[in-house]
């Protein structure tokens, strides 16, 4: 299936130092692409890039905050200087923060508004801003694909994490709106789609879903109960959808959201 190949492509992965981001980085390298690993954790970014380069791949560590345009512009320059072009972008930066959580015993009319806004901004504008910066170079390349990372939180009510819900719902609308506008301007040459993961354990949700002994918290148990596969997803299980959306194998697909969720989004609970 040659049209699934990313050979000679240059793909940027934001949130590339996270757990899911690490799987995305590995996937694009396995598919033949050069990768820019963008994240705030310089140590992990360099460790992952060094490991890929030592194994014969091509990777560049990019240390930046997705909310900082000047840092992203500097990263874009680094990528263009090293690889000469940009073909794709994976907007994987995001997640929840303690300030964006409303516990059941807390007053719903006294939410941490700044905390909720901070989480919403990270997930929504942390997707929009990198697209503005790196998308311009994808347009200059003449062809490319952008993949946003959404969530189950965008379509179903997930308690406690309003800021995250708002941010990911915004990502879904942005994904559709921007895909149409890209099509109006570039036809099928530049596409935008999204992946909506179900429940995967990351550093940001691990304490919400599991106890220190590895057993499920009440919240983790509810997530498993709602997932027909009765388990959390493994990051490697996101790779197939990502490569399909980045490659020519999905060349007639834009504005779509692919759920990789073990059935969570369609299960009625009965």
UniProtKB/TrEMBL annotation:
Q: One MF term from GO for this chain?
A: mannuronate reductase activity
Q: Which SUPFAM superfamilies match?
A: NAD(P)-binding Rossmann-fold domains
Is Ribosomal protein a UniProt keyword of this protein? no
InterPro entries (alphabetical) = NAD(P)-bd_dom_sf (IPR036291), SDR_fam (IPR002347)
Please report a single Pfam family linked to this protein. adh_short_C2
Q: What class of enzyme is it?
A: oxidoreductase
According to UniProt, the name of this protein is: D-mannonate oxidoreductase
Species of provenance: Pedobacter lusitanus
Classification lineage = Bacteria, Pseudomonadati, Bacteroidota, Sphingobacteriia, Sphingobacteriales
